[in-house]
Amino acid sequence: MMIDRKIGFAPRTTAAAKDIAQLQGPCVGCSDCRGLCAALIEALTLPDIILSKKA
Question: Which domain of life is it from (predicted)?
Answer without folding.
Answer: Bacteria
